[in-house]
Amino acid sequence: MIYLKTTLVKLINIIYRILNRSSLNLGNCSPNIAKPFHVGHLRSTIIGNFISNLTNFINGHVVRINYLGDWGPQFGYTLLGLEHMKSDMSNNNMTIESLYNAYILANKMANSDSSIHNKAKSIFNDLECGNSTTDIKNLWNEFKSITINELEVIYKRLGIVFDEYDWESKYSKENIQDVLKRLNEIGLLKFKDDGSTVLNFNNQEITILKNDSSTLYLTRDIAAALRRHKLYDSEDLFYVVDNTQSKHFYLLKSVISQINSNINIHHIPFGRIHGMSSRKGQGILLEQLLNQAKSTMDLKRKFSKTTKINSMDDNDIADVLGVSAIIINDLKQKRKKDYNFSWESALQVNGDTGIKLQYTHCRLISLEEVNSNITIPDEVVAECFTETVALDLILEICRFEDILTETNQELEACILVNYLFRLSNCINKALKVLNVKNSSSIIAQQRILLFRRARETLSTGMKILGLVPLKCM
């Protein structure tokens, strides 16, 4: 009984502890302009959001940065495609779809006409070197604006908010002269006879400025890391990018350590999703994925006997459920491993899914609403709990702190996801046994308090994963 009382005290401390927010961390997500949000960006987006939420909850203040790819020949391709389509190039007529179609068209044209690539490259080079006309610059800015508007619609559905939109274009040669000077001072730069500039690093030469003075990904990432450290006084920079970029970030980390040893570069690699093509073999856009999930959830709610009338719009509930299913289906996978997507497993109501977590949370909300006349005490009385299901639930709640520590050490969302599945199982077993309505006053109060603590733990875990806990479904 002494052990039980100690455990219950620990439970109270877990739920209501004061958080220490001392360190500063950064998250990354990198879609490209003039392209719809492809499902390939799903993992980087939700994994980055999860890590940001987790770090912020445990001990840090997080600045969430969306680093957009607006720099490169793709701008030239899109422009050439629009010209070939004879499109009306005004902001009122261009959409993300028309920009993307223009980009695809220009790439197809380049397969049979090699001059297209040179033209696209020349358009970008003029832009980077400040030689573009005002009209070209205005179009480039319109492309950026259209892209941001499109992305924010998707981010809103996913419940994701960024503190800053950063752009690759911010780190053109003209804007990073101080970085180049610093690299030269520490002896890392070498100027080649062909006009290019390379990093002389670990007995190898790595190009950071081409002979036409245009920058590369590595150049811009070096400059961006230094800026973020200076602007936010951040020591830890997290980059959520797939496994294939490990070599790039190893190099970035090595170079940055030579410039400033106080900056820690963290590459958070992840595997890819397979089986995400449409019947035509084309990649699915994220909006299509979310719409399909929403539609499936809407149908299941209409044919469910447990669906309740509530103040929240049915359309919004279906969307939250669909998003929850997609997020949990991804985050329950091992981060570094590829996995095959399955509509059946992602959107099933039964089993270990995002729907299960939402259903359990709604049951606990309903329990409190039905028993709103009961005064809930501030402290748990250990002697009131003798049932095995109650003790199992208490002990499971008490594991939350250790689970968060392990999750943070590994940066593996599946650790927290699997814990919440176990917690939900304990909650649903306890709900069958620990009757509230027909219990004595003290027992009823204590049971409601226990279920409230369970709901708060479940809700906190769901929010860290990026879910919006529903009150009714």
From TrEMBL:
One of its GO terms (cellular component) is mitochondrion. The keyword Membrane does not apply. One of its GO terms (molecular function) is ATP binding. Coiled coil: none annotated. It is an enzyme of class 6 (ligase). Keywords: Aminoacyl-tRNA synthetase, ATP-binding, Ligase, Nucleotide-binding, Protein biosynthesis. NCBIfam families: argS (TIGR00456). Catalyzes the attachment of arginine to tRNA(Arg) in a two-step reaction: arginine is first activated by ATP to form Arg-AMP and then transferred to the acceptor end of tRNA(Arg). Belongs to the class-I aminoacyl-tRNA synthetase family. This is Probable arginine--tRNA ligase, mitochondrial. It comes from Aphis gossypii.
